[in-house]
Amino acid sequence: MDYSKLRGYFFLNNKYIKASKANIHILNHSLHFSGSVFEGIRVYNGIPFLLGKHLKRLLCSCDLMKLHINLSIDEISRIIFTLIKKNKIRDGYIRPIIFRDSKSMSPDISGCESQIFIAIWNWKLLFKDKPKISLTVGKLKKMDQRFFPVKAKTSGSYQGSIIEKYNATLKGFDDALMLDSNNNIAETTACNIFWYKNKKVFTPKTHSILNGITRQIVMKILKKNKIECIVGNFKRSHIMNADEVFITGTASEVVGISKIDEKKYTKNDIVIFLKDEFDKLKNLS
Ligand code: PMP
Fold first, then answer.
1. Which residues pair with 260 in a beta bridge?
2. Residue 233 contacts residue 182 (beta carbons within 8 Å)
3. Of 123, 129, 135, 194, which has the fewest CB atoms closer than 10 Å, so is most exposed?
4. pLDDT tens across 82-97, in order?
5. How far apart are CA 175 and CA 126, in angstroms?
6. Do residues 93 and 120 make contact, with C-beta atoms less than 8 angstroms apart?
C-alpha cells in the first residue's frame, strides 16, 4: 500500500487540507534527526477507540521529546471527530504526528517550531489474514530509559524494530521478539507480549517497552476476571515453557503466537477468551 496515494481530507497545522496537498519540505528536522512523536488510534463504527488515553500519551510524548503544540486534548479530539465525518470513516485508523519544522539541520532545536499533522484512512487489522503469527528472537536489544525517554511513542525508538522486522520476514517469520539489554523479554517490534503458564499470565516490566494502551486494557480484563497477571523480568526460557503466547497493540488488537523460533504453541484458550472480551469493549465504544 502506498500511503502517499491516500485520498480525502487530512489536518495540517490548523487547516483541513486535501490529502494530495499534505506536503512538507525535504529539509525537515524530523526527517533528518527523527524525534517526532505519534499515535495510532482505531476507529470502530465511526468512533475513535480510547481516544482520551491516546491523546494523553501523545501530549506526554511531546513533553518528553521537547515538542510544543498549542492544542488541548479537547481541541485535538474535535479535529479527529471532524476528520472521521469529513472522510466518512467507519472502521479505520488515525495517525496524529507532531514533528519539527526546517529551522535547524543539527541537533540544536532551539529555533524550531512544532507542527501537527493528522491523517485518517480505512483500515482493518494488521495481521488480519492470520489467526496466529510466528516470532523469531531478534539480535538488537530494546533500549531503556538510560538511552531515551521510553514512555514517549517517538519515531526514534523504532530503528532496531525496523531492522529486526526486516530480518524476521527474510527468515520466514511474521515478526521479531526483542529482548532488553539484560536479555530479558521485552516486546515485539510494535506490540506488547504476554504468555500464559500454570493458569497465570506473565508480561515484562515497562522499563524497556512502550506501555501499550491495549496492554493496559488486557491487564484490566485479566484483573476483572480474577486471572493473575505477573509483571516482571523474565528470561527467554520462561516464555519457551508457556502454554500460550499472545501479543497486543492498537493495530493488531490481541493476536496469538503459533511459534517462537522452533518452539510451537498449540493452545488458544486464553487468547480466545481475551479476544472475546476485547470485542465486547469495542462494541461498547
Ligand atoms: N510497543 C510498541 C513498540 C509499539 O509500537 C506499540 C504500538 N503503539 C505497542 C507496543 C502497543 O501499544 P498500543 O497498545 O498503545 O498500541
1. 135, 263
2. yes
3. 129
4. 999 999 999 999 999 9
5. 12
6. yes
